[in-house]
Model the fold of this input.
Amino acid sequence: MSPNFHLWLIPLLPLLGAAINGLFGWRFSRQLVSAVALTFSGAAFALGLWVATQFPSLGTGLYRESSAVWIRAGDFQADFGFYLDQLSLIMLLIVAGVGFLIHIYSVGYMWEEGGFYRFFSYLNLFLFFMLTLILASNYLLMFVGWEGVGLASYLLIGFWFTRDQAASAGKKAFIVNRVGDFGFLIGLFLLIKHFGSLDFETLFASIRLHSPETQGAGLLTSIALLLMLGACGKSAQIPLYVWLPDAMEGPTPVSALIHAATMVTAGVYMIARSHVIYDRAPAAGMMVAILGTLTAFFAATMGMTQTDIKKVLAYSTISQLGYMFLACGVAAYTAGIFHLMTHAFFKGLLFLAAGAVMHATGGEQDMRNMGGLRTKIPWTFWSMTAATVAICGIPPFAGFFSKDEILWQAYASARGSWLYWLFGVITAGMTAFYMFRLWFLTFFGEYRGGRAEAHLPAQPGGRGSGHAGGDDPHRVPSPSHGQGGIHESPKVMLVPMVILAVLSVVGGWVSYHHTFENFLSPVFREGGTDSLVETRPTSTGVESPVEEGGKETLFMTISVGAAAIGIFLAWLLYLRRPAWPDRIAHRMWGLYQTVLHKYYVDELYAALFVKPLINGSTNLLWRGIDQNVIDAGADQSADLTRRLSDSLRHMQSGNLRSYAGWVALGAAAVIGYMVWIGIP
Amino acid sequence: MTTGLDHWILTLVTFIPLAGALLLLVAPRRDRDLRLFALAVSLLDFLLSLHLPAYFEHQPYASDLTFAGARVFQYELNRPWIRVPNIHYHVGVDGISTWLVLLTTFLTPLCVLISWKSIAERVKEFFILLLVLETALIGVFVSLDLFLFYFFWEATLIPMALLIGMYGHGRRVYAAIKFFLYTMIASVFMLAAVLWLYAKTGTFDFVQIQTAIHNGQVENLTLAAPWLFLGFFVAFAVKVPLFPVHTWLPDAHVEAPTAGSVLLAGVLLKMGTYGMLRFNLGLFPEEARRNASWIMVLALIGIIYGALVAMVQPNLKRLIAYSSVSHLGLVVLGIFSFTALGLDGAVFQMLAHGVSTGALFMLAGILFERRHTYEITEFGGLATPMPIYASFFLFIVLSSLGLPLLNGFVGEFLVLSGAFRDRAVYGILGATGVIWSACYLLWMYQRVFWGKVVHKVNDSLTDLGVRERAALWPPAVMALLMGVVPLVWLKVIDGAVHSALLPLAQIASRGTMP
Amino acid sequence: MLHLVLFLVFALGCVAGAVNLLAQRHPIDSALSLVVVMGSLAGEYLLLGAEFVAAIQVIVYAGAIMVLFVFVIMLLNAGVEERTPGSRVALLLGVPGMLIGSALVVWLLLERSPTPAVAAGALPGPPQTIAWLLFHDYLLPFEVTSILVLIAIMGAVVLASPPATTKKES
Amino acid sequence: MVPLSCYLVLSGTLFACGVVGFLIKRNIITIFMSIELMLNGANLSFVAFAAQWKALSGQIFVFFVMVVAAAEAAVGLAIIIAIFRTRETLNVDRVNLLKL
Amino acid sequence: MNGSLAMVPQATDYLRVLPEIVLSIFGMAIMFADPLLKERPPRTLGTLALLGSLLALAATWVQAQYPGFAFWNMVRVDAFSVFFHFLIVAVTAVVILTSFEYMEVEGIRAGEYYGLILLGAVGMSLMSSAVELVLIFLALEISSIATYILAGFRRRAAISSEASLKYFLLGSFATAFFLYGVALMFGATGSTSIQVIGAALSSFEVPALAYAGIALMFVGLAFKVAAAPFHIWTPDVYEGAPAPVVGFMSTAPKAAVFAVLLRLMFEAHAPGRIGLIWVVAALSMTLGNLGALVQNNVKRLLAYSSIAHAGYLLVAFAAVPDSGIPAAMFYAASYAAMNVGAFAVVSHFSNAGERYVKIEDYSGLSSSSPLLAAILTVFLLSLIGIPITGGFIAKFYVFSAALQSNLVGLVILGVLNSAVAAYYYLRVIVVMYMREPRGEVPVSAVPAGMGAAMAVSLAATIYLGVLPGRVLDYAGRAVAEWLH
Done:
């Protein structure tokens, strides 16, 4: 008999925290608020750890519990059911763990802010939804979490709601996510229509009866594509990535937790969870891979030109998510999840470190106004360094293992292609470039705070103006935050950073001897056999043929080399020859502008969707149809009746003889009628 | 499980507000007492109405067994009223109307609370009208006699029109007349249809007519059925309101006093969808099936069109009004999907919309009390002076845009999946509503609450008082409850929906035979 | 033959009187024409054997009612009829309509009613029979006429008397 | 022997003359006279039909019609006097305060 | 047929016309009392008249105990005639109540006024029970002449005498048509008794002349009930006549004429009924409602509405007798209740000289006199046909009767019309409730008599709307015993 894990408690604990803080927090002291928030999120993490320790005792590696029926209509039913397998266990640990760390960090980071209780309430709420998403035993409950994290994201992005950019960014995030959710929903409808259930076990059991749709787009392909749309929204993939850069308006811990480590990976998790479908829909898989590749590549290019430290990280996140998508697209789910995990460590850390930098510089986000911070904030610097190296894929840091795995699978998997690999490698080079650009600009050279900002040709939108306006609520009270004001963050912030730094270093080692892969393999195995889609084992695998192994080593070398080139260029341009970037930008003005403006995608969307919708709704639908057609039509007919009535009045001329005339006429008509029917 | 109350409970619930109104008529003109009394009456009615779901005899779930002959209508009371045209006082509720009755009794006390201060003149008349309206609304939902139904149907018109016209704002007279004429003109078509049915069957009893139609005992039915269907449908479509006849709604809402808007959006519109469900589906299943495609197209237009127009409204209430057009389009879509999912969802959505849109109108009214305007540009940054208010507002907005675990989601999801199951394209188009609702609601929320306070006058706005919070907590809690434990509602609804679908299923099976 | 001649003579009187009534512009002339019509009609009644009717036709109609008319005309000193623009409806719709209607009725009378020729004095109405009918079969109508007359008297008194001026003026 | 239809046609003619008179005359008194003409037309029909059916009730009817005519004349002329008193005119075309 | 053999009238004969006798006696008593009571306020005479009408109401009950023919088949007392008797006498009583105030304000000669009302009521009552065209004609003339005179009672107002003149001349014109029709009918059947005519017309071959007779009689009667296209006098007369009188003449004589029309159509088996009624009903409804849309004078508006209501009522005439006649009877009753009530309010509100009869004058009545506004609202709602009021049930019943006879088109037209009609009644309600008071319009307290009249009409309107069962039952029974 399997033990009772009480999985439902795991999401519920943060919810309780959220409720307590949300309802009564305004009366609490900051200490109490943080105590509540940390207690409940920590309890969730502890419970998760406990579950993890108990997990091996489950022989099957599968655990499910159904707490209650949620919706039941006709023959459809959805439960409050929870489901635990290796995949969700890993996600649970990542989410609860990183989440807990970031909670701790936030206590320090947000200490000065108004709405402290509100922040922690939202943060706990996010954990609740995220854990629900992960532990759900059916798509509908997953969707609950899915939408819920969107809500939490909305609330947290808009946390500083008095700032217009923050408000707009929150809204944008929610709406763009809704576009993705629309696809998700339709996918669910298709599942309900054809399989009658949304429960993972039941559903996958019946889907397993289908053979892969190798040609054309069948049912499973459609479902897979629709789910992919949902995933694109949540995981910020092309074409729905636009919200994530804007989402950086939220407080930095939020960016770390939601927009780097956990929420944005929900799409990857969902695709991995739905692997049964994707395995049978190669066309959809290809689509995922292509989207992932493109996203990785283009986001990296955009990341190279950003000057806002958080924006760089945001594009980097998009790019890394692209890698994960690529992995899922080529059916290398393990690789995707692996990268998800390492990414959670180093990208979470990067954001936290960036937050620490901003904390130190009094809210400065523009890298051009930083520099030379290395010595001022050493702990932050070293953490940041660990994470940067990790993301660049330098061995033996965590990112190396996962990225390399993905690149190899992109080439070698049955669904792979050298094109994926090529783009992946170039992206890796660019990643190294922009990350080290950030690193150099921030920590090396002279401190440039307060200097004129015009040395770059144009300002990217977003943060600059808000900063110039001086209305940054994040700003530390002291007005003169010169070099003298730069200070290391408090311990409560540093501890989580250090923990994550350690993880960024060692996190990748779990793949040694296929530990990670083997752990996850029951999930992605198809009913006892391996996945339908063959993925290649890694170089470290003993059973790999020599030739394959050699190729893989070569590939690995190439990607590390690409990273090295990137690092070198970054060093050259931003440390050695700081004037060159401007010159290059002027030389390639058009391209530079295009990339700087994120390929004008926001503008394109505005022109294609937002403006026509608003103008069309206003002028065509509302003023046009509603007022000028329907209402006017009703008014016209009323008017017509009134005119008719008015002309009828003139029958009533007041003249007696006219009246008699009418009577006589009427009488004649009656007589005529009666005589007519009277004569057969 | 029968109790002694069972036969009289519906009558009591229906007429207690009326009795209260009559007592108010002779009551002294002390405004505070009047308000307290109205509150007491409506609360009493609400408590009594709780009897209905509490002792409701659950029918087994449709999927569990194919039931036949289970008790569809409960708490029935059938007494002859007028002998010569065979009119009965026949009341009873099934799983659908039970909740609509409850929705009415639930919202009315809130209306009383929310009108506490905002109605300062002619207070007595106001509460009399409100209570009379409640009786009429409940009457509509409990009537099982077509005459009685029409009786209450028309009776809702007057108090509502007077509420709009007497206590409304600016162009209230125009709005009241428009409201009255639109619904009145439409409902005469229903009257004609009802009369025709009586002429041919000799009874107004819903069940008897249904049986007669089902057994083919009505002469000339095949010829007349399309027209009868249309007659009923037109009346209901205007009430809902469906796309081309919806323009009375924004006007009525904008001008109506808060309580009027709450009941108008919360309950009155449901009369239309309820009617479609009960009569168009119940009496003319074949016609319903035949006409479903264009009706669903209208519903879809309503969903998308309403949302798009809502998006660009400069007036808060107008925006919410158009959102109602959108949401009720969803309900109609669900009804005409003829799937258990769709119908369950439609009924649930009716209730959910009643709660959340009712609450939205209350919120808008609270703002109006302070600023005497609904123009969105007059606000901005309100979350700073009024954080509690902003929280409530956000919560209700979220429930309205269908966030899972709140009430809007369940109905929306079921309706759309039902519609999708019936006609995939319709489901897909309807699902775009998910995007639109987020667009207009969040945009509105941003413009009203976020950003900095633009107008100085808004700086000094007071946050919610105790009374206002008392009025807002119930819908908020209800929104959450309905999202988390929708089973409480669905359990009751599902049985009724199943019996509503039974004739349709029979037709479908008959249709497959040559 | 004599019957026919007499009928024609009286009929001519009737029609001529009626047309003259329409043609004359002074009400007095019209009134006199009406007297001619009534007298001739009395003759027709005699031809039909309705002596009683003929008698009261002369007494009541020609004698009483027409006198009343003439009296009022004199009292009000009514002059020649004005030629006011009048009513297009009456002329363009009413008159043609009525003429068509009458034509239809007349045609019906001629074509469709089983109307045999009747001799002069076809149905003598001796006063006894008439009295029997009036005071037995038609007793109630006869009594009711008293109410009618009463009303007429009251009406004439009310309407013809000058309006009271003593009551408060508003 | 005169066919009964001759009487009837005569009565019809008188009735029609009355109607036409009502329609074309301006003087209220003359209009009233036209009504009398119509009544007389009807009376002739009654008497003629009475002869046809050998039913004296027709003649009785005529008697009552005359009573009615007398009553009407009394009232009517009183009304005319009242009108003349307020309007100083007997032209019906000028009595048109009430309209539309 | 029991009384027909006796040489002299028996006691039952008198009992069967007891209400008429009571009314006549009181009518004459008032005339005698008038000069004796010169110094007393007109209310004394009014009280006497009220007493008379109440006694007549009691007499109606007595009369109902002796069903059968009287005075050698002149009148027939059955449930049908009792129904209309009751209706007419009740309306008379209410109108007398409403007149108390009016008399004093307007300075009207009360003796003649009440006398005429009572004696006019005699004619109307007789009309409903008469089964002989002679008597019908006489009764019709009594009621008509009485109302001609009553219309001109506002002596100082030029429009009042004009109304009287128009009504009189056109009324006589129409009477002549009716009379000629009777003559032709007599020619076609050889009798003036409804029974005999009915027997003749229900035979296999209907004489062609009867068609013309029916046509002309119909013209005369349609004129009296203000059915289009013979409605044309109505707005002018209603506007000019004193308000209580309009309340009277738009209900009681109309009900009586409808009774006659019912007898003619159903008891005399008038041929060509359905097509004729169809057109006339449709025209009346449409012209009445359209005409009312642009009126600003409440009395005129109600005049147009009464045309429309005649149309609705006529719809029932086109239906099969079993459901049509009760429907028509019920309609007549509820229309009487609501219309008398409405005119009571109008006459109270109009003040001396009927100065306030414009719709705008009613602005804000709901604040200056909420009760009066509420009462008028109920009547107007009833006229629209909104539930809980008699007007609703009446319309419902009429239309359902028509549908039972497959008159779908007419019903559609009817319901559409009633929807359009809602607009102009609503205008009045809107003005009362949704406009600010104008200030200069004085609203005096409702005196007792007027209050009683309003209360009675209100009670009747609501009663007929909520518990119409008994009245409908009675009407149904009347038809049953009448036709079978």
The CA atoms of residues 24 and 30 of chain C lie 6 Å apart. DSSP finds six helices and one strand in chain C. The longest strand of chain C covers residues 117-118.
